[in-house]
Design a protein that fits this description.
single chain, about 200 residues, alpha+beta, eleven-stranded antiparallel β-sheet, 5 helices, 11 strands, about 35% helix, disordered N terminus
C-alpha cells in the first residue's frame, strides 16, 4: 500500500509539472504587445499587436511585411509597410521602434538623428542582418549585408555605400574605425553623419 501511494504521488507530481509547463507556454504565446502606429496620413493610433512572438528577433521577423492589430475600436486590421510610417511597441519592458523602408518592409530603428540606421533580418537557410542607412531629404537608401558566421559587414560593402564620405572611408581603410558588432555599425553611422552631414 505504501509503494502504491508513492507511485500515485510521483504520477501526480509529473501531471502537475506537465500542466504548469503547458500553462506557461500558453501564456507566453498569448502575450499582449501594446503600442502606437503612425499611418501615412499622419494619424497616430494606439493598438494591440496580434502576435505569438515573445522575443525581440521573433517579433521583428513576424512583422517585416505586415502587422495585424486591434485598434481602440476593437476591430482587427492588417497594415502593410505602404500604409504605415512607423510602429512603436513595448516588448518585454523594452521600447522598440520600426519604420517602413521603401514601402516594402518594416525595419527596427537603431539610430535616429540626421541619418537613420535601421536593421532587418532576412530569413532563409541562415538569416542575414541587413543594415539600412536612410539619408535626409529623401536621399539615397543604402543596404549593407552582414554576412558570414560573425555577421559582420565587410569593409568592401561599407565603402560601396558611403563612397560620398572620404573622411569616414579613410578611417575604415586605415583601421582607425572598426566595424565590430552592432555598436560598431552605430559608431560608423555617427562618424559618417558627423563628417558628411
Amino acid at each position: 500500500i505504501i509503494i502504491f501511494e508513492k507511485m500515485k504521488n510521483e504520477k501526480m507530481k509529473k501531471i502537475i509539472l506537465i500542466l504548469c509547463v503547458m500553462l506557461s507556454i500558453t501564456q507566453a504565446n498569448a502575450q499582449n504587445v501594446f503600442g502606437k502606429i503612425v499611418t501615412t496620413q499622419n494619424d497616430t493610433l494606439k493598438v494591440k499587436v496580434i502576435t505569438n512572438k515573445t522575443s525581440k528577433i521573433g517579433f521583428a521577423q513576424s512583422i517585416q511585411t505586415k502587422i495585424v492589430v486591434i485598434g481602440e475600436d476593437n476591430l482587427k486590421k492588417e497594415y502593410t509597410p505602404s500604409e504605415i510610417k512607423s510602429i512603436q511597441v513595448k516588448l518585454n519592458n523594452e521600447l522598440i521602434e520600426f519604420e517602413s523602408v521603401d514601402d516594402i518592409l518594416f525595419a527596427e530603428l537603431m539610430y535616429n538623428n540626421k541619418l537613420k540606421l535601421l536593421k532587418f533580418i532576412k530569413k532563409g537557410y541562415t538569416s542575414i542582418n541587413i543594415y539600412i542607412i536612410k539619408r535626409p531629404n529623401s536621399g539615397k537608401t543604402s543596404y549593407m549585408e552582414a554576412m558570414g558566421l560573425s555577421r559582420l559587414i565587410s569593409n568592401k560593402v561599407v565603402l560601396r555605400e558611403i563612397s560620398d564620405c572620404p573622411v569616414t572611408m579613410n578611417k575604415i581603410e586605415t583601421d582607425e574605425l572598426k566595424i565590430k558588432g552592432e555598436e560598431g555599425v552605430v559608431s560608423l553611422i555617427k562618424d559618417y553623419e558627423e563628417n558628411c552631414y
